[in-house]
């Protein structure tokens, strides 16, 4: 390994780390490219849009969004979670050009959301829910890619929903695939998985990325089985548009119809896309930061701006709405990506493959790409993660498991919403149990009770405090101490003062220490930020 000289300049150091990262980013970009290619095409097909639109979206996600974004490992492109919205919008708006206008306006809304700092919402997703989402995505990848690995490709690549467009569900699709599998696909996917497991163990050989070797193996397998009774069908191989020249390539682009700006339905679709795409992006960014080996934190507001710029660009070129996508991002992390150059290169490979080698790309079997995603899914949903969450306690494990099951049986956003509700329940439960500390002493026949309130006493603590006060026996001295409290909710204050007012009827003497008549909501975070910036 090259060593840095102690007298190296800043430029030398920068070049060293750039070269060091490129050794990881280049191979990783190839993996992401191979994963993204069928997903872009599959999502475009399921959305009722031209196949070229899916590729354009992937290219924009790599070249535009990654350049503007502050995230080093996230990869953007067309998202399966938006397919139903896109399909319905294209139908309801009457033309694809009008829909593209909605995509452009959605991008503008996302830029505005980023500027008003709406991205901070992403900081409030509980860790247990994000971990559950990652594990669920891993399980979905395994379950959804099994039929593709067996050569049954009736459902589009990238579908994450439990109920599929081919009238199957996640489990019935596997059962159906087992009865109609393709020998060629099974052989190719089986060998691919073996290569993905064994090849990285040979350090000297691992200079060549295992996924790239898998693709070469897949192409060779396609050629060997061609002309036999087990030859792969057209729907079992990648299929991208073949352009014969640059002029034909330019003819594939579609411009939005700006004459539809007066159509109110366009704005409704735009707002829907902006909200759903932003939520999915924030979830993906949070999840990618969790699995980043270096544990970097992505700026969420800047990410919304980057996504907005990307959607404006995609809409102007004829592409689909895009988001940060956890499948491609996790593939990037697992392949060893270090910086955003990996995502940028993946966009470059998508563009170059479309322009120069579409015939070669159209020889890649989907079964070998399914093998890559199966391995990615296995790494995301490893058993050790479930053990780790279990040892963290029930308040972490239950929301984690609920999120896994909810995402698996519904979809990403609904599943996360259900996980959030369970997580909030446990948060409220914990909060309600810890509103104060108390100490009981006796002087003769009389009890003295000191109730020391917590640092933050919210309205959620009202019931617990009220129950304790109402059960204090007669002829007791009670001291309610608010010395440590930075904030006490007005409802709790009212309960305390009402109790003091009425306690004398039971012979109870109540003393209030350091409890104000009113508390303002603390703004310590803003104060600290202002002090740092000054």
Automatic annotation (TrEMBL):
Gene Ontology CC annotation, any one: membrane
Membrane topology per record: Multi-pass membrane protein
Main location: membrane
Biological process per Gene Ontology, one example term: transmembrane transport
Keywords: Membrane, Transmembrane, Transmembrane helix
Record localization: Membrane
Domain of life, source organism: Bacteria
Domain SLC26A/SulP transporter residues, every copy: 22-391
Transmembrane segments: 26-45, 51-68, 99-116, 128-150, 170-199, 211-231, 266-285, 305-327, 348-377, 397-428
Protein name (record): Sulfate permease, SulP family
Native source species: Pedobacter rhizosphaerae
């Amino acid at each position: 390994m090259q060593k840095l000289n102690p007298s190296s300049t800043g430029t030398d150091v920068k070049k060293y780390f750039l070269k060091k990262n490129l050794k990881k980013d280049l191979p990783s970009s190839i993996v992401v490219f191979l994963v993204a290619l069928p997903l872009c095409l599959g999502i475009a097909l399921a959305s009722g849009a031209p196949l070229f639109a899916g590729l354009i979206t992937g290219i924009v996600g790599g070249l535009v969004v990654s350049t503007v974004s502050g995230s080093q490992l996230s990869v953007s492109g067309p998202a399966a979670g938006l397919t139903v919205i896109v399909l319905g919008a294209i139908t309801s708006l009457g033309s694809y050009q009008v829909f593209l206008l909605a995509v452009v306006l959605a991008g503008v809304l996302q830029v505005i959301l980023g500027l008003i700092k709406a991205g901070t919402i992403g900081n409030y997703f509980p860790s247990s829910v994000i971990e559950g989402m990652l594990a669920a995505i891993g399980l979905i990848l395994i379950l959804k890619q099994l039929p593709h690995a067996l050569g049954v490709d009736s459902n589009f690549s990238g579908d994450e929903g439990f109920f599929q467009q081919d009238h199957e569900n996640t489990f019935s699709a596997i059962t159906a695939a087992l009865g109609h599998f393709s020998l060629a696909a099974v052989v190719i996917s089986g060998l691919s998985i073996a290569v993905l497991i064994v090849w990285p163990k040979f350090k000297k050989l691992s200079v060549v990325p295992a996924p790239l070797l898998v693709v070469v193996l897949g192409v060779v397998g396609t050629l060997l089985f061609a002309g036999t009774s087990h030859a792969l069908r057209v729907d079992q191989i990648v299929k991208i548009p073949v352009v014969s020249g640059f002029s034909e390539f330019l003819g594939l682009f579609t411009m939005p119809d700006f004459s539809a700006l007066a159509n109110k339905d366009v704005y409704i679709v735009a707002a829907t896309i902006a909200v759903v795409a932003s939520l999915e992006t924030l979830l993906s960014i949070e999840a990618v930061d969790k699995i980043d080996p270096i544990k970097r934190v992505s700026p969420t507001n800047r990410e919304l701006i980057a996504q907005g710029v990307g959607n404006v660009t995609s809409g102007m070129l004829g592409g689909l709405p895009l988001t940060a996508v956890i499948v491609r991002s996790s593939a990037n992390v697992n392949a060893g990506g270090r910086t955003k150059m990996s995502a940028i290169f993946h966009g470059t490979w998508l563009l170059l493959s479309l322009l120069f080698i579409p015939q070669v790309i159209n020889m890649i079997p989907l079964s070998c790409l399914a093998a890559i995603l199966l391995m990615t899914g296995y790494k995301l949903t490893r058993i050790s993660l479930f053990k780790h969450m279990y040892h963290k306690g029930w308040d972490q494990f239950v929301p984690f498991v609920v999120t896994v099951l909810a995402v698996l049986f519904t979809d990403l956003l609904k599943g996360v919403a259900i996980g959030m509700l369970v997580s909030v329940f446990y948060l409220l439960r914990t909060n309600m149990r810890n509103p104060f500390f108390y100490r009981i002493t006796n002087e003769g026949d009389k009890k003295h009770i000191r109730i020391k309130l917590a640092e933050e006493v919210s309205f959620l603590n009202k019931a617990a405090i009220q129950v304790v006060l109402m059960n204090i026996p007669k002829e007791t001295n009670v001291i309610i101490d608010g010395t440590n409290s930075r904030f006490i909710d007005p409802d709790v204050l009212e309960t305390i003062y009402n109790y003091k007012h009425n306690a004398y009827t039971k012979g109870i003497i109540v003393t209030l220490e350091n409890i104000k008549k009113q508390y303002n909501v603390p703004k310590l975070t803003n104060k600290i930020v202002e002090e740092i910036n000054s």
